[in-house]
Amino acid sequence: NEGALWGARFATGPAPELAELSRSTQFDWVLAPYDIAGSRAHAAALHAAGYLTDEQLQGMRAALDELDADVASGAFTAAPADEDVHGALERGLIERAGAELGGRLRAGRSRNDQIATLVRLYLLDHARIITHGILRLVDAIVAQAEAHPGAIMPGRTHLQSAQPILLAHHLQAHGWPLVRDLERLRDWSARARVSPYGGGALAGSSLGLDPALVARELGLDRPSENSLDGTAARDVVAEFAFISAQIGVDLSRFAEDIILWNTREFGFVTLDDGYSTGSSIMPQKKNPDIAELARGKAGRVIGNLTGLMATLKGLPIAYNRDLQEDKEPVFDSVRTLEALLPAFAGMVATMRFDTERMALLAPQGFSLATDVADWLVRQGVPFRDAHEISGALVRACEARGIGLEDASDELLVEVSAHLQPAVRDVLTIEGSVASRDGAGGTAPVRVAEQRAELVARAQAA
Ligand code: ARG
């Protein structure tokens, strides 16, 4: 086979079943531009070490530019006989530069150090795209919070009525995990900007090539410290897969809130027509498919992480062909998030909230009982007693079928002499949220401060 990167020591070519199993061009072709960037850098290292004349370097660069353009336009594609992107591109280079010049480029490099470098370059680019997608979603969250600075909703723990909170506080609670994901991507990028190029197959190069030059040309910080580690390690890929899975989980938890809020029973939110779907049989239906797909795709990106970790766990240190299996899961996570994030941001940006209904439901389920207990504590009552008194008031109101705010002065003192009419100050949802003004609390003033901090952290990441 003309284009193969190996074969001389074999009496026959690969069996068709082997070629079929081994071929990776159907998924590794996305690495072609990075492979060519690596080749440009490698040519510079060969030139610096005296293996290419000025003229040869020029010819090599011209051929690589031509190949790059042909890959971008689709004029050059993988052939069925190409084992992987590296083999296909060497074939393309030789077609353009001739066998004499094109055949010089492979000196001092292996597909093992190439692939370990290229996957980093690819992921670094996509980390930037995903970062941008998360930033747009944080923007949408912040805009909704800003548009509803005073809206109060029922806060729930165990999905049961707990305490009234600001809608903005709840929305921003979904912003913080995303900000941490941005910070994770930034921290990961610093670790990923290392170049295994120059490690060869496993043992390094004997040709006096400068791996730091290659790293610099590729925009990476420095070469790998250890050629074995550089070619064999995939923790940088697994860590990216983890961050992707965490982003998936964070979107999924937000999605679950939206799905609940969008039910008739909650009735907190209406999704924009452009960001909801209908039913083929039930004409009235309007479904939150973006949120459901987010929840579903979280399972998929978690699977990509666990599959990759399972691939890595038993591998002796050095390159093994199993490592070819690192790419499909992480490429899938990238594609999944890059499709999901813009849709999710659009859904959030266009959601309409029924703030009246939220406010109506906010005091239900005796959600102001903690405020009564806290008020008693501020009057000097020990919390243990305050908890008992407030609990007794809940029971008395429940027996009468009324809310805490409907209790008469007589009922209040009947439950406890400590329950003076002034307690009514905290028996409104506005009074309740305003009183929770400790750091990180749901008081409007704290939530506004928090929002400024959220925006600053997102921008810094
Ligand atoms: N296509 C391989 C991969 O994705 C790189 C090629 C290494 N093959 C080899 N026989 N050393 O990991």
TrEMBL record:
<feature type="domain" description="Fumarate lyase N-terminal">
    <location>
        <begin position="20"/>
        <end position="303"/>
    </location>
</feature>
<keyword id="KW-0456">Lyase</keyword>
<comment type="similarity">
    <text>Belongs to the lyase 1 family. Argininosuccinate lyase subfamily.</text>
</comment>
<keyword id="KW-0055">Arginine biosynthesis</keyword>
<dbReference type="GO" id="GO:0016829">
    <property type="term" value="F:lyase activity"/>
</dbReference>
<feature type="domain" description="Argininosuccinate lyase C-terminal">
    <location>
        <begin position="366"/>
        <end position="434"/>
    </location>
</feature>
<dbReference type="Pfam" id="PF00206">
    <property type="entry name" value="Lyase_1"/>
</dbReference>
<dbReference type="InterPro" id="IPR009049">
    <property type="entry name" value="Argininosuccinate_lyase"/>
</dbReference>
<dbReference type="InterPro" id="IPR000362">
    <property type="entry name" value="Fumarate_lyase_fam"/>
</dbReference>
<dbReference type="InterPro" id="IPR008948">
    <property type="entry name" value="L-Aspartase-like"/>
</dbReference>
<dbReference type="InterPro" id="IPR022761">
    <property type="entry name" value="Fumarate_lyase_N"/>
</dbReference>
<keyword id="KW-0963">Cytoplasm</keyword>
<dbReference type="InterPro" id="IPR024083">
    <property type="entry name" value="Fumarase/histidase_N"/>
</dbReference>
<dbReference type="InterPro" id="IPR020557">
    <property type="entry name" value="Fumarate_lyase_CS"/>
</dbReference>
<comment type="pathway">
    <text>Amino-acid biosynthesis; L-arginine biosynthesis; L-arginine from L-ornithine and carbamoyl phosphate: step 3/3.</text>
</comment>
<dbReference type="Pfam" id="PF14698">
    <property type="entry name" value="ASL_C2"/>
</dbReference>
<keyword id="KW-0028">Amino-acid biosynthesis</keyword>
<protein>
    <recommendedName>
        <fullName>Argininosuccinate lyase</fullName>
        <ecNumber>4.3.2.1</ecNumber>
    </recommendedName>
</protein>
<dbReference type="InterPro" id="IPR029419">
    <property type="entry name" value="Arg_succ_lyase_C"/>
</dbReference>
